[in-house]
């Protein structure tokens, strides 16, 4: 990566200056497996931020209402609710251990006072209702306030119980359990724009569910070959189009994306569009297919574009053009000459996610050494930032980072060989409306905001 | 830096200094890395990155325990340690007999997530 990215202190034009806001999680370096963050997702308003971890737990943060007096920053995110979403299981019939790790969380748009989200592990999807209770009935006739029953013979008068305020209690309860529909491991869930159905995708199949119905789902994609010896690719991610309720896409381990239209047939094994960038065969190596595997696919908010993340790059595709992406951004091209060791330590299989900002003008993705990258599609400028407790004074602007691929390392640059490949940022999320981002390191959640003057 | 169609390798000044002529005879960094890998693991990959990975991925979580195998292995090696799991890039087959010591502790998290506790900074 040879480009220079220096943002002048005053930050000209549309350049955002990112500042540290908050960090959640334990400080110690000894990370328990259960604490590894596995998914991060803002809800539709951005008021709530959910995280899932390897221990099967969900933690939801809520943004506090802006303090009008202190207008130098937006509201902070504080814990709103936390619950155990999934438990470890063992499928004795198949001799299969089922991890409780939360692979994905997706929020439903809010319809009433309660909030709903879908959370999934490898096998089971659950619909959770998160509701607030801030008053309780008091003055029962047959019960004391502490719940003990009163002796009915001592009751001489009747009273009407009334609701009295109480400390806010946030309760999470599982409302639907969608189980036993996936032989392979679920990698994606996506709620349809009809807000009634959703899809779940595993390595070989995609199923369509109705949110109200748990005992039935429709299989809409099946790429399992008749003979497993012929298996050449798996499904890596899937998403519904944000506006067209009949359209969804799924990506593969071979770097292709298929767009399917559910109106065409019940089983969408034949794609409507196939997005694939032609590869120069003379460039092919042992690693080509592995690094072309798409780890995430996300539609733009507008629905006109989609973004894919493979090991080294982020690509933006125009849905109207199948034969190549319209934009390609190199995330960490310097890793191309490290592929041998990245294969040996399994890092080459790391699944990075990517996300759009609310206006689809900037995209973000993570990298190693707790670095994350943003690409501005309009200015074509990009920036590398670091999620680190060293920069944790609120409202201090983050300093851009630069990796030196080789040769003379300038001051403040980091050489490729010094990168910590155990510090990976796989999960990031961007507030749907504001410049607030949530970045997950292994076990910590960082929240950054743009500088508000 | 946005790229339009071709990928560029602008800054590779590593040991593979032939980047500039990558379209022609230059050894691509990937190829050099591939050569390194094949030198270390000569038996690797008749099929480039294909089925082996996929099958491993599909089989994630599979644990086999055969009490007959286990007891016979124990009987044969009365005084020796049972072979323990080592890092294994291939499918879980072969000589390794899973033992109770190998299986990780599996219990659900009763502890609240650390994200939900601690100081808000």
TrEMBL record, chain A:
Keyword terms of this UniProt record: Repeat, WD repeat
A GO MF term: protein phosphatase regulator activity
UniProt-listed SUPFAM superfamilies: WD40 repeat-like
InterPro entries xref list: PP2A_PR55, PP2A_PR55_CS, WD40/YVTN_repeat-like_dom_sf, WD40_repeat_dom_sf, WD40_rpt
Matching PROSITE patterns: PR55_1 (PS01024), PR55_2 (PS01025)
The organism's place on the tree of life at top rank: Eukaryota
GO cellular component, one term: protein phosphatase type 2A complex
Record has Repeat as a keyword: yes
PANTHER family reported for this sequence: PROTEIN PHOSPHATASE PP2A REGULATORY SUBUNIT B
Similarity field: Belongs to the phosphatase 2A regulatory subunit B family.
The protein's name: Serine/threonine-protein phosphatase 2A 55 kDa regulatory subunit B
UniProtKB/TrEMBL annotation, chain B:
Compartmental location: Cytoplasm
Skewed-composition ranges (Basic and acidic residues): 16-37
Primary localisation category: cytoplasm
Annotated segments matching region Disordered: 1-53, 79-121
Biological processes, Gene Ontology terms: cell division
Key words, A-Z: Cell cycle, Cell division, Cytoplasm, Mitosis, Phosphoprotein, Protein phosphatase inhibitor
Pfam families associated with the record: Endosulfine (PF04667)
A GO term from the CC aspect: cytoplasm
An MF annotation (GO) of this entry: protein phosphatase inhibitor activity
Known role: Protein phosphatase inhibitor that specifically inhibits protein phosphatase 2A (PP2A) during mitosis.
Family, as annotated: Belongs to the endosulfine family.
Protein name: Alpha-endosulfine
Organism phylogeny: Eukaryota, Metazoa, Chordata, Craniata, Vertebrata
Gene: ENSA
